[in-house]
Amino acid sequence: MFRRLGLTLGLAFTPLAVQATGEISDFTLDNGLQVVVVEDHRSPSVTHMIWYRAGAADELPGQGGIAHLLEHLMFNGTDDMAPGEFSETVEANGGSDNAFTSWDYTAYHQTVAADRLGLMMQMEADRMRDLVLVPEEVETEISVVLEERAQRTDGSPGALFNEQMSAAYYRNHPYGQPIIGWRHEIRELTIEMLQDWYDLHYHPNNAIVVVAGDVTPEEVRALAEEHYGPIPANPDTDDQESRVRPAEPPQNALRRVIYEDPRVANPYVSMLFPVDETLAYDLRSQATLELLRAVLSDSDFTSVFARELQIENEVSLFAAAYYSSTNLDNRPFTLLNMPIPGRSLEQAEADILGVVEDFLEEGIDQAAFDRIQFQWQASQIYAQDDAAGQARSLGTALTTGYSVEDWENWLEVTASITTDEVMEMARALFAQDPAVIGHLTRPAPETEEEEVSQ
Amino acid sequence: MLTAPVTLHAQAQPATEEIEPVEAIIDIQLVTSPGGIEAWLVQDNSIPFMAIEMWFDGGGSLDRPGARGATNLMMALLEEGTGDLDSQEFAAAQEGLAASFGFDTYRDEVVVSAEVLTQNRDEALALLRGAIVEPSFDEGALERVRQQVISGIEYDLTDPDTISGRTFNALAYGDHPYATSLDGTVESVAGLTRDDIVAAHRSALVRDRVSVGVAGDITPEELGALLDELLGDLPGSDLPLPEQAEFMAPGGIEVVEFPVPQSSVLFGNEGITRTDDDFFPYFVMNQILGAGGYRSRLNQEVREERGLTYGISTWTGLSDYIAMHQGAFSSSNDLVAEAIDVVLAEWEDLSENGVTAEELEAAQRYMTGAYPLRFSGNGSIAGTLAAMQADDMPIDYINTRNERVMAVTLEDIQRVAERVIDPETLQFVVVGRPDGLEPSN
Predict the structure, then answer these.
(1) Which of A204, A404, B347, B358 is the most exposed, fewest CB within 10 Å of its CB?
(2) Taking the CB of residue A445, how many other CB atoms lie within 10 A of it?
């Protein structure tokens, strides 16, 4: 059955018959709460997520980390529930729950048997308005968050380096601050600041509920009306149209970041290229940037960077491009190059910029581009396997300036983008100098003379 | 693509060492190919793709003397070309089919996994067959991947969690393969020859030690033919499997000095195997002690009450040649001694007093309720089916599992706690600069 196929494999394109994804429904309650439902009846479970349009980039100066700290404290009890009772109830029902914070959103989610959805909504609606903050619990949770920061950031040279790169890139916009906050600011957060943050942002008209799994839109609507419906909208909380953050001035001065750490095993260079501010919220431009990233580095073997730097010239251990289109405001386009041992970071800079220059001249290999397009279309089939993943993807899109329609049109738009459009984007992007170039490296060893003199 | 960016999670994910089947909400079929290869199948035609996972018994522990890391390097080379295809042509073919392949090495098995679209299933699996049965092991690719593996080993030498794991294993397992990293060392990997790679391939990918799980859009008949095509040309095994391991760590606290602000702690001692009569009481006890997310005793005492860590968990580590009971957390250097004292106090309390009726009831409710929810997604179902067979679990285990959890009594847990929970023998490895704990090496 298999063997006769031989070498024609790489050319075996067939048009992809994409089936309809799980039906997506979208409605808004009278109090402004948006509800999105992804139906998937293959397994008797449901994922319930609530997303607040409030993240680390919405924090007041001096209160870095408050969005994330409040996320922790949302598990500490309400006027109706004892501290910890939320998670205990989810567990007692055989479910799991967690939460996460980013620059643009804070989200809470539970996965439970489908018949427990009402209970999840009841508890989530309760803590949307009636959270009780207790000084001792705030103090303990600050300790936990400081441990979390130590584990995630302080224990990792790469994470510390990224934090410094962002801080160097953004001079005016709050994306320059870490989501978890700086250690000195986390320590100074107070219960009053937390209460103000909660009162400003935790309202139905600032939230999106996404439900994915073995439910119907009618069931979800009835339960949402019952549990979230009675909570009034807060007229002081505007929708995300009003989330205007300080704009960046023009990126016209190159900054260099040198972060040395004895724990660095393989030094690397990272370069941040500014993306035109006017491209934010433009679906086609953002999809084009994602395609450019994919052409440069999606494959370990066939993408431009892997082929040129790792396989053919063997000057890199690893080279990649990064870009994320799901942010309320623009983030930079990043190139990273980890040279082979013995090659300097200065050479690594020149190596990757040289490949970019060649790429701008030679253009995109059409066969490689077709493969990426086909893989992205196929990803729509694979994605149907994971209803909870779709819920997360939708919630991210909806809290970063996209609509449900945008989300549904994403692949169609992507499929219509041409290599010419990607090259035009690449030329505009790389016509600029990087705004920040960073080196993550080890401290220079002590000189031989010093060693001899000992 | 519209996927989530980096975010922060409020609670550590619980360790998921335990592989569990579901209630009869999924229908598992035993498929035997015309050539005699068996697979477990959950057929679901609602999405036009299938996932397959193949577990080959033996894994990194089959490395021959002097060739530590050969199995791991060999598996990394499987996607580097077959037949007339070099690594880039192989990748281009795979990408053109939108198939995803995985080649992973563990202590006790190597695992090959794939997700393939129905519309080009035969082409995708023909490509996978080439990788498994007739890999090229091209010298150029060998040198490049060797360098990548070595840089990974160097990175691991700077990672406190990896250091604690390796230190623990070195203390625990004497000259058993479990004592050393299956990645090998910089020196051992530098010394591997192409012949070592070919020998590792011959030893690891054998048709008489494979367990196959499949989920998704395929019929039993189609699967039968596919199994013979995919695996029929593999040889039988030529190396014996490893011996039982013996737990040799002395207990107490081992400190590895390392310049980090937070200490990484791994602890454990010998546990109970799945075939032991006490396995289910032990499994439920561990849920109460440290595996159950928020409500576990250790999470309550170390994180919620005292804020000494971001996350702590314990797990029942069921390797093929020893059962371990282990746990891990990280705490700032000035807090880690206190955190260890709290863990030891919990060990003492559990061994003396067992658990309460409320705790047992809550754990049983959680474990039986959560059970059916774990099986969503073709990939995870295929993996679970393969793992269940690799662990010699019967195909009807799924129907008895919840009953066995519910049958556990307070007396059972008391007996098991006395048997395995002993603060004297508990071995801690601390990597960092902990205040008030003297380095002993």
Answers:
(1) B358
(2) 8
Smallest Cα distance from B144 to chain A, Å: 8
Mutual angle of helices B70-77 and B139-156, in 10-degree steps: 120
Residue where the block lists tokens 């494999």: A9
pTM: 0.92
pLDDT tens, residue order, chain A (454 aa): 444 333 333 333 334 444 444 689 999 999 999 999 999 988 889 999 999 999 999 999 999 999 999 999 999 999 999 999 999 999 988 899 999 999 999 999 999 999 999 999 999 999 999 999 999 999 999 999 999 999 999 989 999 999 999 999 999 999 999 999 999 999 999 999 999 999 999 999 999 999 999 999 999 999 999 999 999 998 877 655 568 889 899 999 999 999 999 999 999 999 999 999 888 888 999 999 999 999 999 999 999 999 999 999 999 999 999 999 999 998 999 999 999 999 999 999 999 999 999 999 999 999 999 999 999 999 999 999 999 999 999 999 999 989 999 999 999 999 999 999 999 999 999 999 999 999 999 998 765 544 444 3
Q: How far is B179 from chain A (nearest CA, A)?
A: 24
> ipTM for the complex?
0.90
**C-alpha dist (Å) from residue A71 to A54, A64, A65, A202, B8:** 11, 13, 10, 11, 10
Q: Mark yes or no for CB contact B92/A367 under 8 Å.
A: yes
As a whole number of angstroms, the distance between CA B412 and CA B286 comes to 13
**Option in A98, A141, A382 nearest B9 (CB):** A98
